[in-house]
Backbone:
């Protein structure tokens, strides 16, 4: 069911990044400054290659979460990250909060990038 609404990279045409802006009203204060913890959920199609995720953190406007190396299973997969130090002050490129960057010449597909604010501890 995911492929119908998927988006992805087009390396041949220089389209190697996806940018996401979190609605500023999601947080109890803006900028968030690490007050609210969020969960980042990404659904991607597992083919060849790798990609990187960055977010606007309190101490770094382009904080790297990590590099995902695909396993070429040709199945839809999920990754989850808990972010406790998000500033989310639109300081990423193009005034956004999260970016996904292609790490090589292979195209990748994504179905979902979901943000969930977690309840306070």
Residues:
């Amino acid at each position: 069911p995911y492929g119908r609404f998927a988006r992805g990279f087009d390396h041949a045409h220089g389209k190697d990044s996806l940018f996401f802006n979190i609605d500023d009203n999601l947080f109890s204060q803006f900028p968030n400054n690490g007050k609210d913890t969020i969960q980042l959920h990404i659904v991607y199609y597992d083919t060849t290659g790798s990609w990187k995720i960055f977010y606007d953190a309190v101490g770094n406007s382009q904080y790297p979460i990590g590099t995902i190396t695909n396993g070429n299973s040709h199945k839809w997969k999920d990754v989850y990250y808990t972010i406790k130090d998000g500033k989310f002050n639109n300081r990423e490129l193009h005034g956004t909060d999260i970016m996904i960057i292609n790490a090589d010449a292979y195209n990748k597909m994504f179905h979902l990038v979901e943000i969930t604010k977690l309840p306070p501890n």
